[in-house]
Specification:
Distance between the termini: 40 Å
Shape: globular
Number of domains: 1
Number of helices: 12
Oligomer: single chain
Structural class: mainly alpha
Amino acid sequence: MRRSKLNILLVAILVIVLVLWLAVPFGMALLWSLVDPSKAWSYPDLLPQKLSFVRWTEMWETTNLALAMGHSYTLAPIVAVCTLILAAPTAYAFARLDFHGKTAAQMLSLLPLVVPEFVTALFFTSLLYKLGIYAKFPAIVLGHIVLFLPYAIRILTVSFAQVRQDLIDAARDLGASPWARFSSAFLPVLKPGILAALIIVFIQSIEEFAISFVVGSPDFTTIPTILYSYLGDNFIRPNAAVVSLILVVPNIILLLIFERLLKSNGAVTVGGKG
């Protein structure tokens, strides 16, 4: 009886935390994005006096939001795929090979997570100029890859470590080709990690501001650079709410799709059984 009451209490606490952490901020952003310019929302009004989609229309027609969305959603998949390809060999080495200095190499691979993004952006921009790379798009792609490689390496390292050696040996003993060994022993286990790395890097790339701003400004805009322009000196809360929803909602949908894909793979694949 006590355990049942404790479970109910824990569930109630979890629901309250989720509401305060997710539902309230999302609801406030949605309300602010619908505030009509003709009726300001201010104290003591509990809710906006008038709702409309005027802010959404104005943002779309008077800013380069459409271009910024095109930039962000072109950058993100390219960064995700390139990061995954570059991370795979390192992750394989960390997970399945023994070599001198392995621990130090693993620590060094996490350095981009420790250094502040603006510091990385400034030094990276200086390096690009010295190398004679002035094109905005490839420069930002390279910068995002540098920033997000640690995420992909860490996720894929865990995935590679879960591949059962006996399955690899069995496939080899049966005369399977390298590709057949990979598809039968590695791929079923790696699928969840590959999906996780792709989605996480994709979302991180869409939300990244520092490199996109330092390298791309003023010609190359992304969704976060527009958002931060409304959070600076010219703080316009309704406009910022519109951009923040455009930034966040697709990411939530992607996370839900990712969760569905993980469930469809089944828990047995993680253990190397399929």
